[in-house]
């Protein structure tokens, strides 16, 4: 039993040290796995704001992840084919420049989250789950039937996009980039959790009548959180697409929403490092068991079942003692 | 004395049940107006309509001279209507202090702040701590709400309402479950509090009602059958028959 902050520090260090060691030993594949963990964990950090802090059970977050992916795919696709995105009324060209891609990914997924959130947050309970699911699936089928950008086959990007000062084709450098972004976003999300907004969001999850009674509107608070959550998933989607150098409608499907939710629940819903722990477990199971059997997800299912039944605080909750309430 | 609250002809039905039947009453500055009545008379339903949690079928609610009938609950709270619930409505996983700070945050209104830690916000903490102090909960500030007693939750509800610095209070059975000592202390506190803001008080504890109330209204089957001073109500034959007599039989 250790304190949650110490466990978090340990996990963070492992995520840094293992790829560095692998780099020294020339184990490129391990670095790629660690990068994958960073990127998926980032999506989980996004969902955790809506789900863990806000109590919004969204099965549509793949939409934001996928929009981030397609933002990257479309910009890079136009850049590699030298065909502008549009010429009239003004010229917009593609780009291979990551900061611009990320900005677009964040803005587009944020706008989508605003629209989807504005409608679905008028409902609650099972209806909310269903509506977010429906919006996600709408985008999925739209992507499948949109031939300009690969339709069902998706889009391949031949060369990884660029970041100033780095050679992103070198695995350890791209890992470092993803690791830093993940670290920064976890830090931002911990600031948010303890801020005025974080208090209001968590209070609203616990008792929305209380929120109304102190003069605040639950809908607005949830909508802001939903948009922030979606923007982070969008950024994760852009990075994931860059990691795989490939975008496809699968990013938008409800399986992806489910996976992101599994990371959060496995790690411990609402806990700062839950998405990282959950994503790491997921990737390791896939890596070690996926080679043994095609049905490795059965084990994932069992693990999830055990966590839900016996460890509602997730793996982190299991390993840490509950910190006494303190202000 | 001016009317802070003015309820005019409110009616509300749940199917065939008339929970509020053409109710009119006022709350004047400086007074405690007690609302009594048997179980199921419609007291909580009335409070809920005044606070904005439930829309009346007809009638209107005026607060400080403004018609607030069409305003939602948060807007009414921001105008200065403070409320406590019959069944505590608090954030159970948060601490006592965090709940009070949340009240202060609601009153402050600036929620879209994402960076600075709210529990280090001096202005909010000051409001929260002084409210806890007033109800005698400061020593429990660091405790999680799910771990404090039922009576303490009632006190905390009052404290959170205080952080709002309301112009009027709506209190739905604040004494319930407090025990004799707690009940007596709260009675003393409410007598003090009414100087700051008048209180519409739903209460079953008759000792408290007759000790505190400047006026008493009696609600039976959704109708107000009498309004008057404590003495007038005690001796009103209609009330004795419909309500107080009933109580004595039970006792
Ligand atoms: N949302 C609702 N739907 C249907 N009926 C309701 C609803 N809310 C209250 N009622 C009914 O309206 C009547 C008045 O209820 P209310 O809770 O206002 O009574 P009360 O005077 O506060 O009683 P108590 O002293 O037990 O708190 C009751 O018969 C109750 O069952
Ligand atoms: Mg009641």
From TrEMBL, chain A:
The chain crosses the membrane at residues 7-25, 31-50, 62-80, 100-119, 126-149, 169-188, 221-240, 260-283, 295-319. Keywords: Cell membrane, Membrane, Transmembrane, Transmembrane helix. One of its GO terms (cellular component) is plasma membrane. It comes from Halocynthiibacter styelae. This is Branched-chain amino acid ABC transporter permease. It is a multi-pass membrane protein. It holds the Pfam family BPD_transp_2. It is found in: Cell membrane. CDD domains: TM_PBP1_LivM_like. It comes from the Bacteria. Its main location: membrane. InterPro entries: ABC_transp_permease, LivM-like. One of its GO terms (molecular function) is branched-chain amino acid transmembrane transporter activity.
TrEMBL record, chain B:
Pfam families: ABC_tran (PF00005), BCA_ABC_TP_C (PF12399). Keywords: ATP-binding, Nucleotide-binding, Transport. GO terms for molecular function: ATP binding; ATP hydrolysis activity. InterPro entries: AAA+_ATPase, ABC_AA/LPS_Transport, ABC_transporter-like_ATP-bd, BCA_ABC_TP_C, P-loop_NTPase. Residues 5-246 form the ABC transporter domain. GO terms for cellular component: plasma membrane. PANTHER family: ABC TRANSPORTER ATP-BINDING PROTEIN, CONSERVED COMPONENT OF ABC TRANSPORTER FOR NATURAL AMINO ACIDS-RELATED. This is ABC transporter ATP-binding protein. The lineage of its organism: Bacteria, Pseudomonadati, Pseudomonadota, Alphaproteobacteria, Rhodobacterales.
């Amino acid at each position: 039993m250790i304190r949650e902050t110490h466990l978090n520090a340990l996990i963070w260090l492992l995520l840094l040290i293992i790829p560095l060691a692998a780099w020294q030993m020339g184990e490129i594949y391990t670095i790629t796995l660690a990068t994958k963990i960073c990127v998926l964990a980032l999506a989980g950090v996004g969902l955790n704001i809506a789900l863990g802090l806000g109590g919004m059970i969204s099965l549509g977050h793949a939409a934001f992840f996928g929009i981030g992916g397609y933002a990257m795919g479309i910009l890079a696709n136009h850049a590699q084919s030298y065909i502008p995105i549009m010429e009239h009324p003004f010229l917009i060209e593609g780009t291979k420049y990551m900061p611009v891609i990320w900005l677009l990914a964040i803005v587009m997924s944020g706008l989508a989250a605003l629209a989807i959130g504005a409608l679905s947050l008028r409902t609650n309970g099972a209806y909310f789950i269903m509506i977010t699911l429906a919006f996600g699936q709408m985008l999925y089928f739209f992507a499948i039937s949109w031939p300009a950008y690969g339709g069902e086959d998706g889009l391949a990007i031949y060369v990884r996009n660029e970041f100033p000062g780095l050679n992103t084709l070198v695995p350890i450098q791209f890992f470092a980039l993803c690791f830093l972004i993940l670290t920064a976003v976890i830090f931002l999300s911990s600031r948010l959790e303890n801020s005025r907004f974080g208090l209001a969001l968590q209070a609203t999850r616990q008792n929305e009548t209380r929120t109304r009674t102190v003069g605040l509107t639950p809908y607005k608070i949830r909508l802001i959180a939903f948009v922030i959550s979606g923007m982070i998933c969008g950024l994760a989607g852009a990075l994931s697409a860059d990691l795989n150098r490939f975008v496809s409608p699968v990013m938008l499907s409800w399986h992806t929403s489910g996976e992101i939710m599994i990371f959060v629940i496995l790690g411990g819903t609402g806990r700062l490092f839950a998405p990282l722990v959950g994503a790491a477990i997921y990737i390791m199971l896939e890596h070690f068991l996926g080679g043994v059997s095609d049905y490795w997800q059965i084990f994932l299912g069992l693990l999830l079942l055990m966590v839900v039944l016996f460890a509602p605080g997730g793996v982190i909750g299991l390993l840490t003692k509950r910190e006494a309430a303190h202000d | 004395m001016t009317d802070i609250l003015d309820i005019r002809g409110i009616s509300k039905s749940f199917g065939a049940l008339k929970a509020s039947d053409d109710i009119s009453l006022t709350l004047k500055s400086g007074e405690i107006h007690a609302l009594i009545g048997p179980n199921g008379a419609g007291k909580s339903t009335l409070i809920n309509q005044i606070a904005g949690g439930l829309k009346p079928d007809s009638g209107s609610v005026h607060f400080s001279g403004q018609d607030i009938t069409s305003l939602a609950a948060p807007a009414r709270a921001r105008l200065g209507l403070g409320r406590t619930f019959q069944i505590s409505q608090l954030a159970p996983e948060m601490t006592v202090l965090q709940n009070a700070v949340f009240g202060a945050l609601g009153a402050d209104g600036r929620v879209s702040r994402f960076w600075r830690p709210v529990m280090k916000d001096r202005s909010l903490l000051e409001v929260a701590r002084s409210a806890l102090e007033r109800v005698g909960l400061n020593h429990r500030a660091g405790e999680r709400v799910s771990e404090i007693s039922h009576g303490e939750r009632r006190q905390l509800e009052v404290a959170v309402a205080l952080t709002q610095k309301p112009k009027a209070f709506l209190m739905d059975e604040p004494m319930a479950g407090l025990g004799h000592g707690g009940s007596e202390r709260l009675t003393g506190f409410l007598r003090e509090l009414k100087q700051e803001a008048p209180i519409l008080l739903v209460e079953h504890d008759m000792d408290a009602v007759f000790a505190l109330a400047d006026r008493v209204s009696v609600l039976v089957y959704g109708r107000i059958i009498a309004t008057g001073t404590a003495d007038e109500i005690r001796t009103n034959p209609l009330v004795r028959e419909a309500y107080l007599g009933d109580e004595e039989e039970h006792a």
